[in-house]
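Need residues for this backbone.
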């Protein structure tokens, strides 16, 4: 069991793309519960934090057996609220109210129900205390050397990166964050923004396991894949 890591599952009540998506049932189980199961495969409930502003989400999680120790302040539950601030709020609560301190956090978005305990465990094996973050990615089908373009001031398109590649397979690989797993050094988080992290390693996941539920089509795909 992992004991030096706080697993944080952020679950805001508002969602414009797919209303109430975090607790929509997939094959009879609320979507957030798939992420709870993945975390529970690696640690005990005392090290799992669901950060939500929503009473209904809180009830769903507690009905599933996990105590939700706080409701996220309204200022951290808007469309513009930063992930860093949400994470620091959770870390501070656990330290000051529950006397629990950790060296790193594992951020698990509830919109990645195909991410499993095994994925999280494999990502953690890449962890080093000198790192800022280990983050899950998938190989991007779009490539700035081949089929990504930027519009110039004259209105014409220009390839984002110079290259004379005839096939995408010959281009340098590029990686896309899939939103499923973030192992983050707490000391790094306290002093700089996540976008400023420089010591970052990737954990590669498949296209299938990387599905991030943002709209009804994503939801239908995940429902089908989990059947």
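Answer:
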């Amino acid at each position: 069991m992992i004991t030096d890591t706080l697993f944080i599952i952020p679950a805001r009540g508002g969602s414009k793309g797919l209303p109430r998506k975090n607790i929509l049932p997939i094959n009879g189980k609320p979507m957030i519960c798939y992420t709870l199961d993945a975390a529970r495969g690696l640690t005990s409930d005392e090290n799992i934090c669901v950060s939500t502003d929503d009473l209904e989400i809180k009830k769903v999680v507690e009905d599933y057996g996990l105590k939700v120790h706080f409701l996220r302040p309204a200022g951290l539950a808007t469309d513009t609220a930063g992930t860093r601030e949400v994470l620091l709020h959770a870390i501070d609560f656990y330290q000051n109210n529950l006397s629990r301190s950790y060296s790193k956090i594992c951020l698990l978005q509830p919109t990645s129900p195909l991410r499993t305990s095994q994925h999280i465990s494999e990502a953690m094996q890449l962890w080093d205390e000198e790192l800022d973050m280990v983050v899950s990615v998938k190989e991007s089908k779009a490539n700035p050397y081949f089929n990504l373009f930027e519009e110039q001031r004259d209105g014409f398109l220009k390839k984002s990166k110079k290259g004379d590649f005839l096939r995408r397979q010959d281009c340098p690989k590029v990686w896309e964050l899939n939103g499923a797993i973030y192992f983050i050094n707490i000391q790094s988080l306290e002093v700089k923004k996540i976008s400023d992290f420089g010591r970052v390693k990737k954990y590669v996941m498949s296209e299938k396991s990387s599905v991030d539920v943002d709209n009804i089509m994503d939801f239908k795909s995940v429902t089908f894949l989990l059947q």
